[in-house]
Amino acid sequence: MFKNLLIITLLFYSFSTKSNTFSEVFGSEGAAGIENPKTRSLSYTLQYSTLIGSIGYVAKQLHDTGFLEPLGYTPKQFEKLSPLAYKKNFITDKHSASIIGVNQRVDELNYVNNLKKKLVQNRYSIRSIESRNTGNFVKSVNNISNRLSVIERYYDK
Question: Which of 10, 11, 33, 52 sees the fewest Cβ atoms within 10 Å?
Answer without folding.
Answer: 11
